[in-house]
Amino acid sequence: MEQNIKTSIKECYEIAGNGLDCLIYSYEESTNSFDVVIWDGEKLCTNSSPNTTTSAIGYRTTDCRKMKLVPYELEAKFKKMEKMVTDARKNILERETIDKLYEALPLRSFDVMPAFSTAKLFLFIGGMTEEAVVFNYPIFYICLRSVLQYCNGDNILKLHPVVLYHCYKGLENTYALTQIKGNKINEAKEKEFKKCIEQIGKKINIAGKFKEYDFYKNIGLCDNIINDNASKIVKNEGGAIELSKILKKIVTIAYHNCVDITASYYSNRSRPIDPSALAYSTLIISESRGKDWGGKGEIASSHKDISLKSLEVCSKSCTGGIFSGMRPFYEDDKGRYLVLDSVGVATGLCFATLALKDEINNNLLMVLVDIFNAKQHVLKNELIEIETTKNDKTIKLHGWYCDNALTKDRIDSWVTSHAVKFLLGKAAIEKLSYQREILKKYDVMPVSKNRKNKFN
Q: pLDDT at position 131, please?
């Protein structure tokens, strides 16, 4: 069994390495962005402006480094990725003219400042560094306002848990920024930001695709919808307290999501649940543990219990390498909707498992390892090879396409980045499993129990 685990970990790194190669080649230095889709037999496209894919690749790359998931075999490739991600972030943050801000903000493809893409952009530009200067950029201020508005009042109840998770992580990073001494802007600077917002609104109105009102509504600046929490945060006038309240609210909603979904599963097992909603709700709760907004005492204990029960339900609902995202995380009045891809669901469950690694018993861990092994097998079989041209050179790339792709002659960069993150997280879980297999051979007793027995 030990040899099987070692072989599986090695395979995770090899397949992830293929995905990293693809992401590295999909980056265009002239625009500091990652290509969204790479088609077989076609020239690698270049984007003239940032995109949600760039934000997604950026924060996932950072997450893997923060969690120390990068093995030495992939260190060189990861350093290349990090350089690209840093340049992409800088390119977005330093856009201060109205035209460049308009290009960088999510205003065109779907809605005006839709929650799913705004939250990813906010997480990307604010979660890469703890430098105080991030508060000095208008795009950060605009995204902060939008995320706060989506988390305001009953708006938050409309968010899919995966979008709620991105909001949570972005606001958690912002809370850390408020703890840096001297990290604030003055009244004059905020007035500049609001002037930028007004000019962007006029540009949206001229474009005619979206109403100017929608933009102001989604950033909390309508006459009847004024949200001043952003001002408190960037001026550091009690903003940390407000952020803590919002983060606690998000954790509470995630907790109730888990309770409702698990209760639904056990009351009627013939009715399918949404694993994506349960996985990311569990991830929010598990990552809040030990923090002020994560609860203490009986609350912390109930959070742990429901998190473990949620992992168990997810493990029973995601068999054979199938991780279904059922509820759309975005839909509009034009009939368009977006559902989380299966590897995205698997990633959420994988990282919730990592966050609860000290509490999971061996039986549940082995069940989770089995379903992650099945997903790894699926990813290995679905890894496709395409040929594309870049700088007049033909390149063979390996990656993955979206679940609902109509053709299989393409690689979707955002799906590939999800697959890389999943594989690195899965390898970490298998290392944990390997450690436990080793410890089974010895008479190991926790220090606390050992001391108790000694003095009895």
A: 60
Span of 54-63, 238-247, 442-451 with lowest mean pLDDT: 442-451
Buried b (16+ CB within 10 A) or exposed e, 80-115: ebbebbbebbebbbebeebebbbbbbbbeebbbbbb
3-state helix/strand/coil string of the chain:
CHHHHHHHHHHHHHHHHHHHHHHHHCEECCCCEECCEEECCCECCCCCCCCHHHHHHHHHHHHHHHCCCCCHHHHHHHHHHHHHHHHHHHHHHCCCCHHHHHHHCCCCCCCCCCHHHHHHHHHHHHCCCCCHHHHHCHHHHHHHHHHHHHCCHHHHHHCCHHHHHHHHHHHHHHHHHHCCCCCCCCHHHHHHHHHHHHHHHHHHHHHCCCCHHHHHHHCCEECCEECCHHHHHHCCCCHHHHHHHHHHHHHHHHHHHHHHHHHHHHHCCCCCCCHHHHHHHHHHHHHHCCCHHHCCCHHHHHHHHHHHHHHHHHHHHCCCCCCCCCCCCEECCCCCEECCCHHHHHHHHHHHHHHCCCCCCHHHHHHHHHHHHHHHHHHHHHCEEEEEEECCEEEEEEECCCCCCCCCCEEEHHHHHHHHHHHHHHHHHHHHHHHHHHHCCCCCCCHHHHHHHHHC
Please state, in angstroms and rounded to a whole number, the distance separating the CA atoms of residues 77 and 75. 6
Of 73, 184, 79, which is closest to residue 133 (Cα–Cα)?
184
Task: Report the amino acid identity of residue 80.
Answer: K
Contact 377, 32 (CB under 8 A): no
Please state, in angstroms and rounded to a whole number, the distance separating the CA atoms of residues 297 and 273: 30
pLDDT, tens only, 116-148: 999 999 999 987 555 657 888 999 999 999 999
pTM here is 0.92
- Inter-residue contact 324 to 293 (CB < 8 Å): no
In the structure encoding, which two tokens stand for residue 235, read together? Answer: 């001026």
Question: Is the pLDDT confidence value at 80 over 90?
Answer: yes
Q: Give CATH for domain 2-455.
A: 1.50.10
What is the pLDDT at residue 225? 54
Please name the residue that has the structure tokens 């933009």. 215
User: Could you tell me the two tokens for 415?
Assistant: 């799906």
Q: How far apart are CA 105 and CA 450, in angstroms?
A: 57
Tens-digit pLDDT profile for residues 309-357: 999 999 999 888 888 888 899 988 888 889 999 999 999 999 999 999 9
